[in-house]
Amino acid sequence: MARKVCRTAAAALVLVCAFMLVCCGSLPERDESYSVRVILRRCDGISISGKNIADIEAGRTVTFRVSVDDDYIYIGNTAGAEYDEESGRLRLNNVIAPTTVDMIVVPKSEVVYLEVEKNSDYGTVSASEMLLAGPSEVTLSAEGKSRIEFAGWSEGGYLDDGGSLISTDATHTFYIDGSKVIYANFIGNTDYSIIYHLDGGYVADTGEDVYVDRAAYSDIFAMQQTMESNGKLVRDGYVAVGYSTYPADYEDYNSVNDIPGFSNMGGVCCVEGDSLDLHVVWAKESPDSDFIYEKKEINVIIDSTVGFGSLNQRTEKKTGIEIKGYVGEGGLVVIPEKIDGQPVLSIASGAFSGNVTRAVIPRTVRIIEKRAFSACDDLKEVVFFDSVVTVYDESFNQNVSTVVLNAQRLPVYSGQIEGSFNVKYDRLRTLEGKKIVVVSGSSSLNGIDSELFEELMPGYSVVNYGTNAANPSLFFLDVISKYAGEGDIIVHAPEYGAGAPMGTNEFHAKMFRGNEQCYDIFRDVDMSYYTDFWDSFREFQVGDSSDSSLVPAIHQSGKEYQLDADINKYGDIGTVRTSVRGSFGSAFETFSDAGLNDANLNAVNKKITARGAVMVMSFGPHDSSVIRPSELEREVYDKVNAYCAEVLDYPVVSDVGEYIMEHKKFYDSEWHLNEEGAKERTRNLADDLKAYLADPSSY
Asked: pTM of the predicted model, to two decimals?
């Protein structure tokens, strides 16, 4: 065939191999005392503008201007140079030896096209299309994702459409002598089912005692209980408080955490196989006579927006019941969904007092006034739904240790970055073997390359528990302590100087935004240890006039569940971050006002070490351009390192100065690294951990 190649194929191959050997070896120290010659060889099918020979200093970059004629197609070049067909620039970087570049171009009439089609999004192929200079051998590979198998290669269509089977080998070499389409066939079950057993209840619209819901598998996101079941599962005189993998009545247990396989409604499921059987856990409603109540018109917030330092709330009058008092025996109190045929909408101030130990607040309730339960000193467990829009810290006493938050609506933030939180949570709970868990704010979310981290730390799986700097890292460390195992490494790497990552126990509304798809997480810790839980939940629902970034959840309550393509299986941000977006301001300028909440952090460290794991401290990255010059000193870094080592009961394995990085390594924040920066930070952290593991006694 009459290929227009500037050298013979054999000679071109020799040049390519020689160039690769030079580039892959160790580069010599740059020496400006010698120059190298680069030649772009002329041939049919290309037009060169200007000179085609350049003499440059070793290690420099050379650029030629060349265009491909209309009747030809560019295939490649023999030197691995970068060629931009649109601009016509051919660039060869870091030239350290004389080089001749041959453009490989082919007449359009002789080009061979290969297209690879696949019948499922649940399988991958090594190439989707290829442009070949002529008849040649091409090796293709295919791999099915979770629960999907590769069924073979075919021509003329997919196998189930009458195509002809070529091979069932996942890796196969084809001889392509003309333009053609190869089909990759995958088979398997891409759905899972959740089977709800109503155990005394029934499906509202069918009367059946079993309800089946189906959804598609995701390689990234944990399996979700869909919200279609809410409102359909009914048992007269009972309130649903969650699901269990075994039949269970709430009255038979001291806490939902004692019920085998208990899961909040709308929580994350671990499904082994094609289906999961769940049983509705019911709580028998307390008698109407236990309550003092009033039927009335109640103003309920139905929408809210934030703007110009104020909340703009839209309310609607709804007729329903307000609970004003309680005269029952105490213990477990299950507030009915309806009294006298009317929905229970509100719980008034001072409604409950005495020896109430557990309270179930049904999905009908919208308002829990201040001091509604605050006189109940023995109240330890509260079950409620995200239908509540008005609630306060003063609504409950500080002794409530177990909080069961059930979802009554579809997640509204699942398409945001916070959609990654349930990925991290599911990975934390289900990974087998040793793991490294990195905990911080968004500096890890946007600054850890988990895949590279696993390569650098063989034998460990990585969980990137980077969240948001407003979220208390202490809470996530507390959760992790429940799932930590022998040999695990928990890395606390705070954005030094930010309160929440440094160990505060104060909640923030973004905690609910991030964990909206895994409300189960709030049952994993003793909530009496944390402050501002209820106020933060209200702000999550209806907004906060001082924070315009908190779009009220009820404003988005109709949004359907969606997957975020920018999240990978580790919970890392998958968005390409190659550039730096200007100046980021001066949110972080100095170390002088920073302080670790060492009491909180040392307490959670005891929980982690009791599980056979180790907790260590590193640091989040900071953009050097926004830190005061007087702080960019070795003396300051040493002081910070020494302070952390003195107040913490766990080792400081990193040097804070190593994580003060150049502005060009950041993306859109003084804490958010671009891809280059993330890889550097990941390598630094891996080196720190290896040094610690080699000699823990020296830390």
From this structure: 0.76
